[in-house]
């Protein structure tokens, strides 16, 4: 333990030596020759000349010391399965999966799309890709055919790995029909689709394209597939995320930088140690799942719990019972999940022995004070540690690095800038840095981005530069698109997005994507979607639409019918995760005279706030109508 201020300062001022030290915590086949190549900003290349492999660092290198220890603990309260895979077991399963991929002709650099529920095979699939140098692209199982199709189109995978179905709250959600539709919508066709059949839902097989995982696995039971050592800068995966435009961006991650960043974060941020258990309740479809269900804990030699199910089924004590049973030392969840648990019997928090738990980390959305206090008190004072980051960054930007130096948390703040991140608040108009306390600015990171952050947008370097980077006096800064202030002690407070992205239960959604989907309904002429504050989910999407044929809206029942139809369109195209909480009908939408939708004014009215300066508004009655339909 040392001083965090010094640790952080060194990571910026003596960047290469700092990261050269951190790089020693992973295995390299060839050690890096050049720590950071930033000769072509804003593209940063980390650990140039080094060759390594993510799967080797997550699995193989632990075989000697902890081969018989737990690596992956799969728990499904949906199918009542519970199975522990040791590092040796995981090694075998990953090689079998890798051999199957190779039998389909997958080689280094090929993309493999993974559209799967939270089952052990999903982790075998990710690790198998990393093992052979293939680039995985996991698509969240809650996304539907249209979302999936845009990702298939962009990633052009040689193989897709999927399953017959997921299950949520005891309800089977069939994946295969959505996958088949997505493939038919996409101009790119995969060579093979590998199906894990859980026998939850019958599905049609396409001859010559679809293969059964169990049958293929049988053919490769004794597979020995060595790790393909790749350059540090070789892409390990892409993960799609939403932004201002309707088209999701493929965030591209490297190999060496990511491995080093995660390896360093386990002790320094999460205080995790080899042999302990990490329980992250996210989903492999999100970045938190990539970094802290799969790669981070395994690189750190820990056991990781992969959980399929709800936090309140069979009862609200299920997660805590797992903490007791598997002696979880690090737990990672999202504020929404805790708000769900808050509605359960508080005695469930004290029923289990939670003495193994060092801290509960929460991320993905703002952590409100009542939720933080409730869980902190309920867990008998276990530290609750907020952390702020993004799909793009791969690991936390702001938090309290208790593994470096213990420091207090402040309610409402995710903490200070993490080592490696040169965080600057800038004025959104002038780009000037705001150095005073409590000044509101855009949270930016001065380049080069630290290891583990996105390399570029898949297949679109120009989009990477144009979307994220701004040249402010003398330097290039990466924009997080979040407003923030920093107090006199260096603690940041996040104040919301600067763009049209909303955050529903920790899921990042683009309002434009939802608008595009709603507009595809034949009777919708125009629509505006905004994020509205919600007690449980943080935010929910609300839609205000203009019908092409207003006669279809004769009475309340007719409006409800069209609302239901629109929701179905969103469900089937994007997935229930993007479904607006309400679709209300109006005859005009508030716009500026130049025709720009005034989403912020609509949002303010929905949240019963002052809509602010409306002098540029074209038709004031449009906002009045929004107020009226809200009732
Ligand atoms: P995602 O890329 O899906 O992880 O979403 C990233 C966005 O979620 C950030 O840009 C923030 O707007 C929000 N976010 C993530 N973590 C936090 C946090 N701890 N506090 C407040 N907002 C957060």
General description of the model:
The protein has 631 residues and is an alpha/beta fold. 31% of the residues lie in helices and 26% in strands. Strands 12-11-8-6-7-14-15-25 form an eight-stranded mixed beta sheet, sandwiched between helices. The longest helix has 18 residues, at 556-573. The protein is globular. The N and C termini lie far apart (57 Å). The chain binds adenosine monophosphate.
Concise summary:
The chain has 631 residues and is of the alpha/beta class. The chain is 31% helix and 26% strand. Helix 1 (4-13) packs across helix 2 (15-23) and helix 10 crosses helix 11.
Spatial shape: globular
Radius of gyration: 24 Å
Physical arrangement of strands within the biggest beta sheet: 12-11-8-6-7-14-15-25
The residue-averaged pLDDT reads 95
| Total number of strands | 33
Distance between the termini: 57 Å
Strand content: 25-35%
Q: What hetero molecules are bound to the protein chains?
A: adenosine monophosphate
Largest beta sheet, briefly? Answer: 8 strands, mixed
Number of helices: 20
Unreliable residue stretches = none
Helical coverage, percent range: 25-40%
Q: Which structural class matches the secondary elements? A: alpha/beta
